[in-house]
């Protein structure tokens, strides 16, 4: 089938059952099918996976997908197998496979059955795999969560740094697709530079979430009472409350329970069984509120989360955007409330003091942006979007009024007084 004959809508329907592309998906798919290096920046939930899965299913050969987490890869492979009856169509290649399994995966690739091969970056460094893959027909290479390549991102993985060299060894002319949900201009530059794809066709979706209401309140010693009041005013609604430490998670969950709120804790210190039970209880609406550390959220897709509260301010605007982004997935209102005290910033700075100097510098710069966000008197939505390199008109933009600073602008004299301090 020649490229011009491919009806992408038909293929979308055939493989995924969807009748429409979401946002920029169609253009991205076309770019990949036309063998361009491609860079995709879309917020979480934007539908990035399909951008490479559909071309992989259409094209000859195997697409290699680099992804940082085994759990994420497994989810994706299961999902792909769900939509396509062929077992061999998607595989994970990682250290958990035994020899027989590796042999089976290799055979499926050789026979052209495997369309998607998910690998962790550290598996790709194995000589044996590289030697094998360079003999195969590879359609393209997709790097998911590409911000892991940048130390300016919120999730730097040193293994991502070697990808360019490995890709070169697998094949000089394989198109590269990078995808991320968290690209500040700095991270974007890093990704393109490190992957050696300066001319990649870039597709960037808007990061504006017009149905989210952004609010910052000063954090006092009564913060727990403030949270209880807020949750009670939102009785029966689903919400997430983020705390910095496991200890605080446990304490706050208990305080809420004592006050008659249906809340449970979630953090990495709980055993796997409890964690998955608590997550299910939240998803199944047996509880209203999860009090959690940042361990909670990756891959959580509960559409009707109505509020996300930060008891402690996060360490970057990107983290804040990701965490608040779990509210209002269904398009209904999501209230994003952060409690802020400068003391918390100092605490976060102190946490970093044991780290290498370069990391501390990055961490400090990211924190200063958080301070600026918390203390700003301009539209918070404008601030966040500006951080992501996007312009926003605070008067006419979509969701402009969903913002404490816009609804209750600081009066002129207050602003003046602050200046005179
Ligand atoms: P991302 O990786 O950008 O966070 P995902 O690839 O996980 O997003 O997709 C988010 C959700 O959107 C998934 O449930 C997926 O099935 C759904 N989705 C993707 N593309 C479409 C589409 N064209 N039509 C309907 N739903 C879609
Ligand atoms: Mg994704």
TrEMBL record:
Domain Helicase ATP-binding: residue ranges: 29-201
Top-rank taxon, per record: Bacteria
GO cellular component: bacterial nucleoid; cytoplasm; replisome
A biological process from GO: DNA repair
Keyword Zinc part of the UniProt annotation: yes
Family label: Belongs to the helicase family. RecQ subfamily.
Protein name (database record): DNA helicase RecQ
Organism in which the protein naturally occurs: Zunongwangia profunda (strain DSM 18752 / CCTCC AB 206139 / SM-A87)
Full protein segment contained here: 1 to 421 of 731
């Amino acid at each position: 089938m020649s490229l011009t004959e491919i009806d992408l809508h038909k293929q979308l329907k055939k493989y995924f059952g969807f009748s429409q592309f979401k946002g920029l998906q169609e253009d991205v798919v076309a770019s990949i099918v036309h063998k361009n290096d491609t860079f995709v920046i879309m917020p979480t939930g934007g539908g990035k996976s399909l951008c490479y899965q559909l071309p992989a299913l259409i094209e000859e050969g195997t697409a290699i997908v680099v992804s940082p987490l085994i759990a994420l890869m497994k989810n994706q492979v299961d999902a792909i197998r769900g939509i396509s009856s062929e077992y061999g169509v998607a595989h994970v290649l990682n250290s958990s496979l035994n020899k027989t399994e590796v042999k089976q995966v290799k055979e499926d690739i050789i026979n052209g059955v495997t369309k998607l091969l998910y690998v962790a970056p550290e598996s790709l460094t194995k000589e044996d795999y590289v030697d094998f893959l360079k003999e195969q027909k590879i359609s393209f290479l997709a790097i998911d969560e590409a911000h892991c390549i940048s130390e300016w991102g919120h999730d730097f993985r040193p293994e991502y740094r070697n990808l360019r060299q490995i890709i070169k060894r697998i094949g000089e002319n394989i198109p590269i697709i990078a995808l991320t949900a968290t690209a500040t201009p700095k991270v974007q530059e890093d990704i393109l530079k490190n992957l050696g794809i300066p001319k990649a066709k870039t597709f960037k979706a808007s990061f504006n979430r017009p149905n989210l209401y952004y609010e910052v309140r000063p954090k006092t010693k009564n913060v727990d009472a403030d949270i209880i009041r807020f949750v009670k005013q939102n009785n029966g609604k689903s919400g997430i409350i983020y705390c910095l430490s496991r200890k605080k998670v446990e304490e706050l969950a208990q305080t809420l329970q004592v006050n008659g709120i249906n809340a449970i804790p979630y953090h990495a210190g709980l055993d796997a069984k409890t964690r998955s039970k608590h997550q299910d209880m939240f998803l199944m609406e047996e509880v209203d509120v999860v009090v959690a550390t940042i361990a909670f959220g990756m891959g959580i897709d509960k559409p009707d989360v109505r509020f996300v509260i930060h008891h402690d301010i996060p360490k970057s605007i990107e983290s804040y955007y990701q965490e608040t982004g779990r509210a209002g997935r269904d398009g209904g209102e999501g209230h994003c409330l952060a409690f802020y005290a400068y003391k918390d910033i100092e605490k976060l700075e102190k946490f970093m003091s044991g780290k290498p100097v370069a990391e501390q510098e990055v961490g400090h710069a990211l924190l200063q942006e958080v301070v600026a966000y918390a203390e700003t008197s301009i539209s918070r939505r404008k601030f966040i979007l500006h951080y992501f390199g996007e312009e926003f008109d605070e008067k006419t933009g979509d969701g402009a009024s969903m913002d404490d600073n816009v609804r209750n602008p600081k009066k002129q004299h207050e602003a003046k007084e602050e200046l005179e301090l």
